[in-house]
Amino acid sequence: MEWLNDKTIEALINSIGSIVNAVILTIIFVFLNDVLFLSRYYKYDTKENRKIITKKLRRLIPLSPIGLILALSVLLIGITSLMNLFMKKMGVISFIPDIVVVMPKVSAESGISLETSDSSTDALLILFVIMFVIAVPLFLIIMKRYCKIIGCSKEMGLFVYMAVLFMYITSALITLPIKNITISSLISTGSFIVMLLIFYLPSEEKIELMRQNENTDMMRKINRLPIVNFFLLLILLGLEYMLMKTGQLNTAFYIVILVFAVLLYTASQISYSILFTHIDEGNRIRELSRESQQAQEQVTLAFAEITEAKSGQTGQHVKRVSEYTRVIAEAMGFDHKIVDEMRVASMMHDVGKLLIPPEILEKPGRLTDEEFTIMKEHVNIGESLLCEAPGEIMKMARVIAQQHHEWINGKGYLGLKGEEIEMPARICAVADVFDALTSARSYKKAWTAEEAFKIITEESGTHFDEEVVKAFSEHFDEIKEVQEIYRDETSTYRF
Q1: Residue 149 and residue 25: Cα distance in Å, rounded?
Q2: Which of 458, 457, 486, 459 is CA-nearest to residue 470?
Q3: 339 and 267 belong to one structural domain
Q4: Cβ of 460: how many Cβ atoms within 10 Å?
Q5: Other C-beta atoms within 10 Å of 236: how many?
Q6: 397 is in which domain, residue-wise?
Q7: Is residue 41 part of a domain?
Q8: pLDDT in tens, 431-465
Q9: Of the four, 139, 154, 242, 385, which is 20 to 30 A from 362 by CA?
């Protein structure tokens, strides 16, 4: 057994140490994903769920950073070997020694390290460029599969994977110059576990917050940090590797590199903490804003129902006009926040009727010219009532209350036309007229939805804004659904 000498035993021990290290780091990666994702989506309470989780965990193993590094190493060997053959075929003999790949050697992190036959800086730079070109598409493929398996958005998956990859590279940076593979593996595993605890324990609630906001701008902003930090760390690792291969890595350089790595890691943790604090504050502000808007909406609805009750109508008219406005505004592509503001503000379109004499509001027949002149004043009264009200919703409500009886051709109550009429009022005009036509009054019967639809489309460009009518027409089925949901109990619509 001549082959069983000290060198062989040392190589065997190093290989086993490297494999054990890779297995431990892979298990930690799989366990982390189980805790963060799979166990949240699937409980271990049924045999079927346990099978699903086990299957997903097995599929995660080749997608771990260890798997990524191994796959990258194999691809690099294959591509550089093909390049060597091609260069030899082309007769570029002088180039071969700089890029030729020798037999792979076991290392602490990936189990494989690549060396050139010449330790020149040019050869190393060529290897780094090739590795980068291979790594980008490979990383994208792995990320797509990873997100699909754990069932999260690409933003959330990117954050967790990059955080783990950052820890792997940091542990490699620490152990790269250590020649004893067993000691290197122990230090690598230990440093990785410490960094994982530092990352996970304070961030558990933050990760839950991120999970609730997976497909948002917030996640895209958060992901800028790990990507930038990862590339900076790669530069440090590349610098350390080049210094080591060229024989220039001494204790001073090693300490400087480690200090930079520690500073980078510390800075990233501080950055996360600051960013999450701002996000937390922003969420609290949004929650308070939402509660405030809900309270404002309830007050607005109550106030609008009082107005409608005074004019002999039901509160359902307010709700229908509000929902018609929402459907049209959404169809026109307005932002969700603006749509919601229009929906609430449109409830106040007839608030000026509060100060119109009841004998005019409740008159069973048609109004005289004099009475109609008084009735038309409700738009100015509404504007006066709301002109001092604070907030964007009340500002929009004031505009709607004043302008919802305007015609595009200028023949409305105040004579405004075209662009002089603000868009919320143009939308509410269509919603209000449609509901007025399809609702029974003491002086008229309710029209069918189709009859009202015909009138509105015929008056597009004269009474109503053409873009608003187009949105109304294209979403007429939704309009009729709203009409059915909020129908008056004592009314019979004719569809």
Answers
A1: 19
A2: 457
A3: no
A4: 18
A5: 19
A6: 311-485
A7: yes
A8: 999 998 998 876 678 899 999 999 999 999 999 99
A9: 385
